[in-house]
Write a structure and sequence with these properties.
The chain is α+β, with helices and mostly antiparallel strands. It has 14 helices and 13 strands. The strands form three sheets. The chain has an eight-stranded mixed sheet with strand order 5-4-6-7-11-12-3-13, sandwiched between helices. It has a three-stranded antiparallel sheet with strand order 8-9-10, with no helix packed on it. The protein has a two-stranded antiparallel sheet with strand order 1-2. It is globular. The mean pLDDT is 95. The structure holds flavin-adenine dinucleotide and iron/sulfur cluster (3 copies). Flavin-adenine dinucleotide (FAD) binds next to helix 4, strand 4, strand 6 and strand 11.
């Protein structure tokens, strides 16, 4: 029984959630990513997994983005702990205030991101921050369905393939379901992260926290920060960190990410959130954007309803889709280095090369932080004055 082509399987886990006989388990497969494995003794050949697999579905084929904004959360602490402008948190808080629940990716004890349901605001911090590793969707789609059937408002947040998977799993519209899909660059495997941590310190068991978007010194030139049980910390500019660099250039991404069908403006969420890369302010109220600014795409009436409810908690400015696409490659095309190099990369990986060695070999001239960065930043901060006087 083949569910879909191996190369386009996103590991979304919809098939495992939908199988009526629990014949499908997600197990480690190619390049240490998770793939479905069918136990033929349990399979009754109903065909449901293949029929509902999002990789087999026809994609949406027209842009459904209605409105575009640049924004950030007025709460400084939440903004600092979030990857972009901290907009996710406000939406999640509003849903919980309405006796709802929120599904998103948290770190587990061994730092493997996993989707879970959060029911109170005090625990929302667990979902904060981008974890640049594939999250395990475990039983989340069936848990979401249970909550929807009980009449709860549910906010689901995740990558576009996970959002598509949820829609496909549910098979019908629910008025009480709200979806956030992230602008998505792709995901490395958990094993790649473990290998990197081992190179820094003996094992992942010694980690107490990982922040991939530690806004120090800035949001746009941030660091990777890993805290260990002995009180030490590893802090490096993302451009100096081998794991982040390989992710950023695209070598370490899952095969499906390098040919992703969601890197466009045909969105599966009511709202899409991302970083507003390339943003320059149009007014003085937006001049502090360098502490983190979110891109918000509103893609449905539900999305508009959500935004109307949170606007008061945001510093917000309307923008245009052209401007948003200009700065964000993940809205245009997947990240994919030349195929031959990618194949060689994975052979080296399977042969046990360290993440540092892989980075040195495949990205010999990494991105360098500009010397007069502070001057560039100052110019961008006050560009609105020039724009106004023109
Ligand atoms: C793997 C990945 C790739 C991304 N690529 C891009 C990109 O190329 N361009 C861009 O503009 N933005 C990208 N983003 C989105 C961006 O990093 C922020 O997540 C987004 O802007 C929301 O930020 P925030 O400040 O509102 O909230 P935050 O608190 O930073 O966001 C938290 C949300 O991210 C979700 N999340 C965190 N890690 C994962 C994960 N591994 N899998 C699924 N969901 C997760 C949580 O469930 C939560 O809903 C990516 C995010 C992820 C997770
Ligand atoms: S449903 Fe998801 S995990 Fe299952 S085969 Fe399809 S893409 Fe892969
Ligand atoms: S065909 Fe049906 S029973 Fe078999 S693995 Fe797929 S969903 Fe499960
Ligand atoms: S790049 Fe595409 S396939 Fe990969 S995680 Fe993101 S949405 Fe899924």
């Amino acid at each position: 029984m083949k569910i879909c082509d191996y190369s386009v399987c996103t590991g979304c886990g919809a098939c495992a959630n939908i199988c009526p006989t629990q014949a499908i388990k997600m197990t480690i497969g190619l390049h240490d990513f998770i793939y479905p494995h069918i136990n033929n003794e349990l399979c009754c050949n109903c065909g449901l997994c293949s029929a509902r697999c999002p990789a087999n579905a026809k994609p949406i084929n027209s842009c459904n983005v209605n409105k575009v904004y640049a924004a950030w959360n007025k709460n400084k602490q939440v903004r600092a702990n979030s990857s972009s402008g901290g907009v996710f948190n406000i939406i999640a808080e509003k849903i919980i205030s309405d006796f709802g629940v929120v599904a998103g990716a948290k770190w587990t004890n061994n730092f493997h991101p996993e989707h879970c349901l959060i029911e109170n605001k005090e625990k929302l911090f667990l979902l904060n921050g981008s974890k640049y590793v594939q999250s395990d969707t475990a039983n989340i789609y069936s848990e979401v369905k249970d909550a929807l059937k009980k009449g709860k408002n549910v906010l689901f947040s995740g990558t576009p393939c996970q959002n598509h998977a949820l829609k496909s799993y549910l098979g019908k519209e629910y008025n009480n379901l709200y979806q956030i899909d992230l602008v998505c660059h792709g995901v490395p495997s958990y094993d790649m992260l473990c290998r990197h941590i081992c190179e820094i310190k003996s094992s992942i068991n010694k980690v107490v926290d990982i922040k991939f978007r530690y806004k120090n010194p800035y949001w746009d030139y941030c660091s990777v920060k890993i805290d260990f049980t002995d009180g030490s910390s590893y802090v490096k500019y993302t451009s100096d960190d081998s794991y982040f660099t390989l992710f950023n250039i695209g070598y370490s991404l899952r095969d499906s990410c390098r040919q992703c069908k969601y890197t466009n403006t045909y969105r599966y969420g009511d709202i899409t959130l991302g970083d507003y890369w390339g943003y320059s302010p149009n007014s003085s109220k937006m001049r502090d954007f360098q502490k983190g600014i979110s891109l918000i795409l509103v893609n449905s009436l539900k999305g508009e309803e959500i935004l109307d409810r949170i606007k008061g908690d945001l510093i917000i400015e309307p923008s245009t889709l052209n401007q948003a696409i200009k700065g964000n490659r993940s809205l245009k095309m997947p990240f994919s280095p030349p195929e031959g190099e990618v194949n060689e990369f994975w052979i080296d990986y399977e042969n046990g090369m360290t993440v540092d060695e892989l980075c040195k070999k495949y990205v010999p001239t990494p991105y360098v932080v500009p010397k007069l960065l502070w001057l560039r930043r100052l110019k961008r901060k006050y560009k609105w004055v020039i724009k106004k006087s023109e």
